[in-house]
Design brief:
about 575 residues; alpha/beta; Rossmann fold; six-stranded mixed beta barrel; 21 strands; about 25% strand; rod-shaped
């Protein structure tokens, strides 16, 4: 259907009270004003005078709180939201200081928006948008996004959009405020041409130099109309005799709007990702990727730290249980432990992964003029517990060495350093232990260096000074006691107390009395647990920082997206979108 000629605008005692930060503020006070067909009206006043509020009321973006606003004899205050949207869509065109273009849409798509809400067919809408852009000098910039246009070009796109559905009333709020002088003059000349073509043009600005271009100068201060100056006689060339021809706009059906929305949905998603949405999408993906990477890294660090801690504890003996025979409490006959007790512990205690008989002697070890006071201990490798120790050279003790009571020894790293020079080859050389010659068969790698607390480091130092010989060799050649001690090793330090109780039960059943002592490396376990808690706390802190950082990045992205969406909704409402058009 065809819309009729646009009648005059008439305000009578119009007031507007706005809620500013919870305070009622009177933005306009009893404004009475009449605007005729083909008028070019200039509204001036300082910032905060009420110019923008007046234009928003004229454009049906705000309802007056008092007085009467008549548009062609119709009281605008009596119209519902849909009817007001129809006026914005088909009667008014808006140009503001900020061009208010949809950032994700091209110049052509921005100009098409009012036609879409008016129900224009796609082909006709696109052709009219091309013609309008060509008329404002942008025929070569149809497919450019707003960010690819200059400020003046963006304002010309806004003017073309204002004319899409006819734009019989052009409302321009500070249209030159953000432009350079040359671009500002271009926009004003364009608005003058629209006025010459029969449009009503209302320009609000605080720049009084623009007043000489207008037919009427309306001055507002503190929300009140203080002066109206007529300038029509000074305008050349004279006005055209009639208003611009109305644009034929169909009455859009709901099905047509749904079809348009479905057809343009892929384009909306694509354009959103290409422009403003691209940064948000990239930040969201980056945040998720960083969160996943941080979680994977922390998991790896935690596992690696736990494994390293377990390795250190294993080497320094924090997973070890020492059972000492012939060391009974007062009033209890001592128990002499033997190899059979070792087998009983291995078979009867599930937490024990290895056990071996031990003879530990404080001995003087000689090599030439070098003397080392250290602990010489035995190792029955049949249970394999020493196989976990790394060799720096030579080979480990074997069951054959034990069976034939071979006088062979393995030196800890510190014992090797104390008995041999840096350039000497120890393998195959002799050392004298308590008067008995032994051949060096292997050198162990150092354990526990650089790990843990001072106490853990001291335990590692003692371990590295030890010398190891076969059990049967020690019994035959060295001044040992009647029985042996037993060293048992658990799978995890957390199992050590439970394993110690089980070992006590096994030995008590075998010997019928509690004539032995069981000792655990409780101090080492406490150190490990303390350091593990500290390490876990550090990882938890890092994870929290990573989670908070990722969350803040996502929140910032969402906030930017919400702000863009709110701005875009405002633009669509300004050009006439119905509530049902905005999802």
């Amino acid at each position: 259907m065809s819309r009729g000629p646009m009648p005059a605008i008439k305000l009578e005692a119009v007031s507007c009270v706005l809620d500013v930060a919870g305070t009622a503020t009177c933005a306009l006070r009893s404004i009475t004003l009449q605007i005729e067909e083909r008028d070019f009206v200039y509204v001036s006043g300082p910032s905060g005078a009420g110019k923008t509020t007046l234009l928003n009321i004229l454009g049906c973006l705000l309802r007056p709180t008092g007085g009467t606003y008549r548009l062609g004899g119709t009281d605008v205050r009596g119209l519902d939201a849909g009817q007001l949207a129809g006026l914005r869509r088909e009667t008014f065109g808006f140009v503001s200081q900020a061009p208010n273009l949809i950032e994700s849409a091209t110049a052509l798509e921005n100009v098409e928006v009012p036609g879409r809400y008016a129900g224009m067919r796609a082909q006709a809408r696109r052709q009219r948008a091309r013609d309008l852009l060509a008329s404002v000098g942008l025929a070569e910039r149809l497919d450019h996004l707003p960010g690819e246009l200059s400020g003046g070009e963006q304002q010309r796109v806004a003017v073309a959009r204002a004319l899409m559905n006819g734009g019989r009333v052009i409302l321009a709020d500070e249209p030159t405020g953000s432009l350079d002088t040359s671009s500002g003059h271009d926009i004003m000349r364009l608005l003058e041409r629209l006025s010459d073509a029969g449009h009503i043009v209302v320009v609000a600005s605080h720049d009084d130099k623009l007043a000489e271009r207008a037919d009427r100068h309306v001055e507002i201060r503190d929300g009140e109309l203080v002066a109206v100056t007529e300038r029509r006689s000074a305008k050349v060339p004279p006005r055209c005799a009639s208003a611009p021809a109305p644009i034929s706009l169909p009455v859009p059906s709901r099905w047509l709007r749904i079809a348009e929305a479905l057809r343009d949905a892929p384009k909306a998603v694509r354009s959103g990702l290409v422009s403003a949405g691209r940064a948000g999408a990239a930040l969201s993906v980056l945040s998720v990727a960083l969160g996943v990477a941080a979680a994977a890294t922390l998991l790896g660090v935690a596992r690696g730290g736990a494994n390293a801690g377990m390795e250190a504890l294993t080497h320094v003996g924090a997973d070890r249980i020492m059972v000492r025979g012939a060391d009974a409490p007062v009033g209890v006959a001592p128990v002499w432990l033997g190899v059979d007790d070792v087998r009983a512990i291995i078979e009867g205690v599930g937490e024990v992964r290895a056990a071996a008989p031990v003879i530990r002697l404080n001995s003087n070890v000689l090599r030439g003029e070098r003397v080392l006071e250290t602990t010489v201990r035995t190792a029955d490798l049949g249970h394999g517990w020493m196989q976990e120790r790394a060799l720096a050279g030579g080979v480990l003790l074997t069951d054959e060495d034990n069976a034939r009571r071979a006088p062979v020894a393995i030196l800890g790293s510190a014992a090797h350093t104390a008995l041999f020079g840096p350039d000497e080859e120890p393998i195959g050389q002799q050392v004298v232990i308590d008067g008995q010659p032994f051949v060096v068969k292997g050198i162990l790698e150092p354990v526990g260096e650089g790990r843990g607390s001072v106490a853990a480091a001291r335990l590692s130092s003692l371990t590295n000074r030890q010398i190891y010989v076969p059990v049967q060799t020690a019994l035959a050649l060295l001044p040992a006691s009647k029985g042996v001690d037993i060293e048992a090793y658990v799978g995890h330090p957390d199992q050590i107390e439970r394993a110690a109780r089980s070992i006590r039960d096994v030995l008590f059943r075998r010997h019928g009395r509690d004539g032995f002592q069981i000792r655990t490396a409780a101090g080492g376990i406490d150190i490990w647990q303390s350091e593990r808690r500290a390490f876990q706390g550090m990882l938890a802190g890092i994870a929290a920082v990573a989670a908070i950082s990722g969350g803040l990045a996502i929140m910032a992205t969402m906030l930017v997206a919400v702000r863009r969406r709110v701005r875009e909704v405002g633009i669509r409402i300004m050009v006439g979108a119905r509530r049902s058009d905005i999802s």
